[in-house]
Amino acid sequence: MKDELDQQTGDLFARSGSAERQARLKARREAAGYRQTTIWLHGDSERIGYARGLVAAPLQQIPQEVVDVTSYTLGWLRGDQDRPASVSCASCRAEREKPVRAGDYYRALDGQPLQVWYCSEECAERFQW
Hints:
The structure is a single chain. The chain is mainly α. It has 2 domains: 64 residues, no CATH class; 46 residues, no CATH class. Helix content is 40%, strand content 8%. Helix 2 runs parallel beside helix 3. The protein is elongated.
């Protein structure tokens, strides 16, 4: 609360010049197709990356229509994690019947397994270290 006799402190609730600049920047970014999270992401670039991640397209080959590389990369990572993947038993290599979400079983970028799956308890016992 501001003291009534205080002549040095301005109106704390007045809109400042920097706030107006930030509002104009936000309006320009939204008009250009960006959405604000912690960083600005371009929606179309993110969608292109997601679609290419779903089909396991190489991350390094960025299409010409991509406006923002960061948005594309984040979309690709999300798509790669959501991609259906086949998982095989760690012991007998039998394929799992139902495909799973790749992000649940494999680490992004290098494809290393995050967890081990066995088709039966016998295979799990056989594969014990």
